[in-house]
Each structure stands twice: as C-alpha cells, then as structure tokens.
C-alpha cells in the first residue's frame, strides 16, 4: 500500500499516524507551548509572522 511513497512521504505518513493517536488536547497543548516559546525568542510580532509563514507554506504545498 505504501510501496509507491518516497522516503519523505513515508516519514510524513508515520508522523501523521503518530499524531492521530494522541488526544486533541495534547496536540493543542504542544502547539500552544511551541508558540509561546517562539514568542519568547522572536517577540509576539515575530512569532505571529513566523507561524503565519509556516501555515501559508503548508497550505501552498496543497496539504
């Protein structure tokens, strides 16, 4: 079933499977912690811009 996937595709599939086994609240907590840590390093405006760039890049790749 996954024979046609590249190494990167297989790694991404494994990451998705790993995430799907975690409770939603845990994922939100991890995201919140990462954003707060990013804001501490880059400031609120810098963190906001960085998160927006990451989400826009992800959306442009057609995910």
SSE map:
Elements: H1 7-20, H2 24-60
List key phrases describing it.
63 residues; mainly alpha
Largest sheet: none
Strands, count:
0
Global outline: flat
Q: What count of helical segments does DSSP give?
A: 2
- Through-space gap between termini: 20 Å
Estimated share of beta-strand residues: under 5%
SS class = mainly alpha
**How much is the average pLDDT?**
86
Give a written overview of the molecule.
With 63 residues, the protein is mainly alpha-helical. Helix content is 81%, strand content 0%. It has helices spanning 7-20, 24-60. The two termini are 20 Å apart.
Provide a quick synopsis of the model.
By secondary structure, the protein is mainly alpha-helical.
């Amino acid at each position: 079933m996954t024979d046609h996937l590249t190494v990167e595709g297989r790694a991404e599939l494994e990451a998705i499977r790993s995430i799907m086994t975690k409770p939603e609240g845990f994922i939100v907590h991890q995201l919140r912690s990462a954003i707060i840590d990013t804001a501490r390093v880059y400031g609120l405006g810098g963190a906001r811009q960085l998160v927006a760039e990451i989400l826009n890049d992800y959306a442009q790749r057609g995910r």
